[in-house]
Design a protein that fits this description.
six-stranded antiparallel sheet, about 110 residues, single chain, about 45% strand, mainly beta, about 0% helix
Amino acid sequence: MPTEITGPTLATHIDAVDRVEIGPGVHARELPGTTGIRPWVIDLAPGAEWPGVDEHTGYGEAYYVVEGTVIDGAHTYGPGSYLFFAPGTSHRPRTETGARAFGFNYDQPKAP
């Protein structure tokens, strides 16, 4: 039996969210989230690479490959792959085929 939704809800289509160019062939869409969790979608054009090393100093990051393939470190990840980066880790994703990934940054909550 379906559960009724209660409370405030925000629904949007990913492609309706404005994208920001992070680097050549790398576009990010920041999605609505909540304190401490920042969701996003990254689109990588064929041959694109994150413009620098992505360091997770105090908090982590996770992403799910939706389409295409992402090369992160020495491994290639296709659709359905889930990667988690703990605090203190770094990486620099790239792609040869193009890719879309959906992820979260776990950020320090802002002080009141």
